[in-house]
Write a structure and sequence with these properties.
With 159 residues, the protein is an alpha+beta fold. It is built from six helices and four strands; from the N terminus they run αββααβαααβ.
Length: 159
């Protein structure tokens, strides 16, 4: 495997693909469940007895809140599974599409538990206005703060 560190642009593009998956899948799940259980149109009758649509129902109901929370749980499951698989294989769907691999200091993949730690450490990158994701732009090692915390590096695996 090559030891050439990945460029920030390729890492950012891979992260956008992965973020889209972590957001889109739970949104589809939430929309589907909402449509099945909490959605629907409320109707009202005017003074003459004619029924008219009053809009979507379920938005402020306990069922609506439960569905939104279920969507958040699905997002956490998708993100956790993606982080674990990245630890095992070195790649997320975005990294696979762009030919990138996350490796440890020894040049091998991190392993599932370290992948989860790296995924959780992404909060360190996000909290200060996303500055941790920008660190590879000015650091010689091209690591984010989460990479430094876990001891990982993202390399370009294309030949």
């Amino acid at each position: 495997m090559t030891s050439r560190t990945a460029s920030w642009g390729r890492r950012a593009a891979a992260a956008l693909i992965d973020t889209a998956l972590v957001i889109v899948l739970p949104l589809l799940f939430t929309a589907l469940v909402w449509a099945m259980f909490a959605g629907g149109y409320e109707t009202v009758s005017d003074a003459s007895g004619v029924q008219q649509s009053a809009g979507m129902s379920g938005g402020s109901s306990p069922a609506g809140l439960g569905i939104v929370l279920a969507g958040a749980v699905v997002a956490l499951i998708v993100a956790g599974r993606m982080a674990y698989r990245q630890g095992e294989s070195g790649q997320t769907p975005g990294k696979r599409a762009l030919g990138l691999v996350t490796v440890g200091a020894d040049g091998d993949v991190l392993g599932g538990p370290a992948g989860l730690r790296r995924g959780a450490a992404q909060l360190v990158n996000i909290v200060p206005l996303g500055a941790g994701y920008l660190r590879p732009l000015w650091s010689g090692d091209r690591q984010t703060w989460a990479d430094r915390f876990v001891g990982s590096t993202v390399v370009d695996a294309r030949r």
